[in-house]
Amino acid sequence: MNYVKGKYIYGNLLSGIEGIHYSTGKPVRLEVKNGIISEIREIKEFSNQQTKVYVAPGLIDNQINGYAGIDFSGNSLNDNDLLTAAQAIWSEGVTSFVPTVITNSHESIVKNLTILGEACKASDLLLKSIPGFHLEGPYLSPVEGYRGCHPEHYMRKPSYKEFSEYQKASGGRIIQVTVAPELEGAMEFIKECTGNGTIVAIGHSNASADQINMAVDYGAAISTHLGNGCANLIHRHNNPIWPQLANEKLTPSIIADGHHLNADEIRVFCKVKGTINIILTSDVIYLAGMAPGRYSFLGADVLLKDDGMLINEELNCLAGASFPLKKGVENIMNIAGYSLSDAIKMASENVARVYGLNSIGTLQKGKRADIILFEMEDNQIQIKQTILNGETVFENI
Description:
CATH topology of the largest domain: TIM Barrel
């Protein structure tokens, strides 16, 4: 993790935090007691005379497939890897994240969910930082283009019986599953998942408008990285993007890393859904923070280019992302012209609301003190400190 210039600090409990409020632009002091924000008040000047540091709620990333060389779906995942990855994730201003396990053999999915679940049980910090896991696959479209880089030979029809095995392996921590609604048995699967408290997302799908709307009627609530997990060539009228944009009950996540969507797509998605009904996500894989070059991912060769783009040249598709969530926050300001307040909201408050994470997501009295301090110039964010439950977990000063 040589890209991290700061250091990880545990046990440094904070009582008072000062900075420029990310939403109001005014100097504030936050009082913290027992890991909870107990007071927020405006102040005339900072005690340390530093006026360039902003304070905001920690970012929440709902799709992290791996980080800093650690692949959550990889064959070599071990008990210590999740904390190592979390440290790198915290350094980028993300205080809560959803480890994502993707399409693989039944045995591999069970194994890796078990490892991730046990790692959370063994660490109080991870329990606070990880609200649950995301299973993206194997219940996705096997059609080329729509499956993206997910290996076709592991894809299968939705099975709630099988999913229950995954849920048990994870220790009951799967909070989201992404599914293609057009698959046989998908509607009943969606109904059973939502009935048992699992959030269902639509993704890697070539479903019709009727199938998408029916999936929403059965409880689907999120569109996984809308505009991606889609063929390069689609029908201009009848394709899975329009009905997901049109359905007001769906909250799409988007990858605003500069590679997955072009600027006009981002602007249109934001205009249609508004700042309150869209989520910024990273979709990073284990190559986040690593040097450009050729690597292996999902059993295939992938190229990490100098500009951060990750591609599977054989399939002519992107292979996940390499930029952290704060890149999306920066880009949404530059591309859509949103304020810092709205950009942060799309990567924190909106995510917390969709997942029912009522204790985090905003700077507010009574909320958990998951806080980031950062400097910003030309909409470029430099994380100075990451605070989880009132405790400093990363510092770069």
